[in-house]
Amino acid sequence: MINLLNIQELAVHFGGLCAVNSLNLRINSSEIVGLIGPNGAGKTTAFNVITGIIRPTKGKITFLGREITGKPAPVIARSGIARTFQNIRLYDDLSVIENVMVAAHSSVSYSFAEAILGFGRFTRDEARIRKRSQELLDLMGLGHLTREKANSLPYGSQRKLEIARALALEPKLVLLDEPVAGMNPTETSDFAKFIIKLRQDTSIGIGLIDHDMSFVMNVCDKIKVIDHGIEIAWGVPHEIRNNKKVIKAYLGEN
Amino acid sequence: MPDENPKRDKFLTFISLSFLLCFLWYADNHFSNYTLRILNNIAIFIILAVSYNLINGITGQFSLEPNAFLAVGAYTSAIFTLSPEEKLRSFIIEPMAWPLSEISLSFPASLVVAGVVTAFMALLMAIPVFRVRGDYLAIVTLGFGEVIQVVANNIVSVTNGPLGIKGLAPHTNIWWSWGICIFTVLCVVRLVNSSYGRAMKAVREDETAAMAMGINAFRIKTLAFTFSAFFEGVAGGLLAHLITTISPSLFTFLLTFNLLIIIVVGGLGSTTGAIISAVLITWGGEALRLVEEPISVLGFEYEGIPGMRMVLFSLILIFVMLFARSGLMGRNEFRWAILINWLKRRKTSEAKNQ
Lengths: 254, 354
Description:
The structure holds two protein chains of two kinds. By secondary structure, chain A is α/β, with parallel strands linked by helices. Chain A has helices spanning 43-50, 73-79, 96-103, 112-117, 121-139, 155-168, 185-202, 213-219, 237-241, 244-251; strands at 3-14, 17-28, 32-36, 58-63, 66-67, 81-83, 173-177, 205-209, 222-227, 230-235. A six-stranded mixed β-sheet of chain A has the order 6-7-8-3-9-10, sandwiched between helices. A four-stranded antiparallel β-sheet of chain A has the order 2-1-4-5, with helices on one face. Chain B has a domain at 6-252. The mean pLDDT of chain B is 90. Chains A and B meet through helix 2, helix 3, helix 4, helix 5 and helix 6 of A and helix 9, helix 10, helix 11 and helix 12 of B.
């Protein structure tokens, strides 16, 4: 098990609002880490900072021992961190397979001149990307929908497509922002099995945010609870379940 | 869904291109100069529409550059094809600046230079503009279009000022214009169908999601903009040697506006749409001259109103916008498989009817 992500004393301020305050988090390979907390706790902000969409006010983020704090989003993505979004962000007008193939752009070795002339590495790379994308779609159970437009898929399939797209980046760490939101209990338990298997097969690290507590408790190895940007608990699922602070944050004091 | 078959598609494309060439050969030998002029115009507008669509429709960056880049391309290629003696003769206000006055290139070489110079200008604009998100590109390119006219009017020793450059050799013929047109379309189509094209579309659809998937949006946008600028520059060179006289007043914003209409009517983001629309609007603009001429129908005399064709033209555009809001093609592209499937379905339905 190697350490993938290491966040130290991360803080994000939006003007006077403190969205995240001194967050520490470690994610190792083959590990599923949950990040939970009530609405507005700063979970998505933390993901946005890790993936370079927002710059942190303070703190240090290292990935595979290299500092990535404040680096541009594409650089971070190429270094091996893929993600999905809370409010699904697919390329609506592109076909399902194109959506996945886009994420493989960083692995393309041909220049745009070769693309125009259509020889050299072009044919080989395109075939490789297409094959790999088809495999990922099959893995997510979307293999028969390759030519549909992304926005014509039902909600649950769009979530799966986002995950297929994230995996096409060949990441070492995947950050899933509410992956089972809007799924029914059967789909959720299927998905739980899927990510546990994914972790076993590929040894990638997974960070996930979700509000479905039974799902989170079921799949996560460790859980971090934050509230109002402040860390309130860290531990294995059964510790979190019985933590007084966590219960207070979720249910309030009586 | 129809099946793709690369070998068959390549073959069919080759056959239809040969038909086009046969038609052009026939046109070149039998058609009047007026018709040939329209054919040349169509080719140039296809080049412009297809490359303009690359940045506006496919990459989704609203830009208003064509008149400026056409001007840069036209002036560059004109300056390089004139011989030193001709330059001495036509630059009467001020003689031409030294190194330029002695250089003279062949027509194809001047087109390449025109494309490269225009692409370089685009690169200079792209670097500051694409660092930020938003509609800055539209503002910068609109401004550049105005600046380039002022510059062309005032650096007399390079552009001959308001007099413009006259007496260019009419190098542009059916073969040059259509040859470059086909080349441009093939290049753009290939680029769009590659990983770079997919990245451009991803940037259009959702820039944040594209960056989160490792796509350097800045580089992709710069590539699209520079690439389309190259072909717009070449089109400028073709235009200059078609009309043989260029002056600053030729490259007003109206030109950009026309092209914007073409790509919107064709369907923003569809190369096929851009081509169809460029043909229809360039040819239609000429065909509609009919309504400005006197006609007598069944004893009713109509004397023809100048400007009437623009009124009709606007009406057609309004109807397109009302009833086909995403343009003629939407974002769809022509594919052989679609045509073949359509033909097959028609055949079976005909058989059923009998």
